Amino acid sequence: MLTRAGQRCEAVDSLGARCDERATDCDHIERGDDHHTANLQALCRWHHNQKTAREAAEARRARPTRRREPEAHPGLLVQ
């Protein structure tokens, strides 16, 4: 994996410029258990952390919010 990438990060910015940092991490392009080389990329630690944080934020937004009905304080219950 890292040899294929020439030991360089494969992250590309919005202008198409490739990162110049040394690749330290192997990352799944698409999340899941697909370990084929076509779904793997070499990333520097910074880009890998950025991608992981972005994916985690997306997963949090996709979860439905669960709210419980507020309960009366036990001291306010009428007996």
* Number of E-type strands: 2
Alpha-beta content class? alpha+beta
Proportion of residues in extended strands = 5-15%
Low-confidence stretches: none
Order of helices and strands: EEH
Q: Give the strand order of the largest sheet, numbering strands 1, 2, ... along the chain.
A: 1-2
Helix content: 10-25%
Supply Rg.
22 Å
How are the secondary structure elements laid out?
Blueprint: E1 25-28, E2 40-43, H1 45-62
Antiparallel strand pairs: 1-2
What does this structure look like?
It contains 1 helix and 2 strands. The longest helix is centred in the last third of the chain and has 18 residues, at 45-62. Helices cover 23% and strands 10% of the residues.
Features:
single chain; 79 residues; alpha+beta; two-stranded antiparallel sheet; 1 helix
Task: Write a brief structural summary.
With 79 residues, this protein is α+β, with helices and mostly antiparallel strands.
